[in-house]
Amino acid sequence: MGNKSLTVRQQEVFDLLVRFYKERGYAPSNAELARMMGIASPTAAHLMLKALQRKGVITIAPGAHRGITINHQPKQQMIQLNLNSTVKLKLTDDAIAELKRQHDEMISDHPGLSLAFTPPAADVNGMVSMPLWSVMSHFGSLCYCGANHPFEMHLVLEDE
User: Where are the alpha helices (DSSP H) in 55-158?
Assistant: First the structure.
C-alpha cells in the first residue's frame, strides 16, 4: 500500500522500517537503517527519517535510541485466544539453547532423572507447534525490547 505523498525512495525506506518493526518488534538504529538502505552514513539515514517524519508517516522520539514510531494503524482483527491455544512458531538458536538450559536445570534439580534433551520437532517449514502457555512459560523472560527474540515475531494460530 503506497503513500502518494512519499517519493519512491521514501516509500522504499518506509517499507524497510515497517518490515524491520514487524520482524523484530522494535525500530532499527540509524546505523542498521543505513545498512538496510545500502548506504554508509547513519547521518544520511537520519536525514531520511526526518523527511519521513515531516511527511507524517513516522514519529521520532527525541534522544531515544530506536525511538521511531510508525504512524499508521494496520488492519486489526480480533481473535480469541486462551492459554491452551496452539501456536506455530519458528524457534531461533537462542530458543533451543534456552530449552536445553531449562532441561539441564531440571535434570540437576532431580538427580534421579536421566532424560536426554531433544529439541521440539519442526515441520517442513521449520515451524514448531506449542501451546501458548508453554511459549510464555519457556520464553517469556527472553522477550523484551532490544533482545534477540527466541522465535520469529510471527506466530501462526492452528485451527482448534
Answer: 93-109, 132-139
